[in-house]
Amino acid sequence: MKYLIRSVKYLILLCVLYVALEWIMLSFFPEPEIAGMSLEEVLKLRYQGERGMLLIAAFVGLAAFYPLFGFMKMRVDSCIYTRDAVRLDNAMHTFGFKLKEDRGNVKIYGAESMLRRMFLMFEDEIEVHIFASGIEMRGLRRSVARVGYQLSAYIHNSRFEQENK
């Protein structure tokens, strides 16, 4: 069910972006053959015929596969939660996330502000699963990758600081 909801959200986002681009093009760079038309008429014209159906199919196809490539799992083996909990919180805070829920071995981080939540299409949760050998983060690809690489840098820097003491 979560997969379907994510696909529908992405399809709506694609449609909104497409309509916004058409409006910008119509308002600021009108083509001579559509100069006097309204946005509604331009959209009807664009979706008629074979090219319009191909565009619709492309949007539906992208939306259908978005959850497969838009979300990821990232394992950070060098992070031992009992030792690096502060570093994890700092990495999350750097990218606008805060701890929302603590379920023992699973920590749920969410966006700190409503604007950030909207920017992430309300897919703002990062699940952190804690294992003895490290942690695994699950969530939106760009958020997990950013936090994961920042956390790895924090951990690497802390090891370097300990070696030089």
Structural write-up:
The protein is an alpha+beta fold and 165 residues long. It has two domains: 2-69, no CATH class; 77-163, TATA-Binding Protein, CATH 3.30.310. Helix content is 61%, strand content 19%. A five-stranded antiparallel β-sheet has the order 1-5-4-3-2. Strand 4 (126-131) and strand 5 (134-140) form a beta hairpin. The longest helix has 27 residues, at 2-28.
Strand neighbour order, sheet with most strands: 1-5-4-3-2
> What spatial form do the alpha-carbon principal axes imply?
elongated
Which spans have pLDDT < 50 for at least 5 consecutive residues?
Answer: none
Beta-strand content: 15-25%
Order of helices and strands: HHHEHEEHEEH
Which fold does the CATH topology of the largest domain refer to? TATA-Binding Protein
| Structural class label | alpha+beta
Distance between the termini: 52 Å
Task: Give the number of helices.
Answer: 6
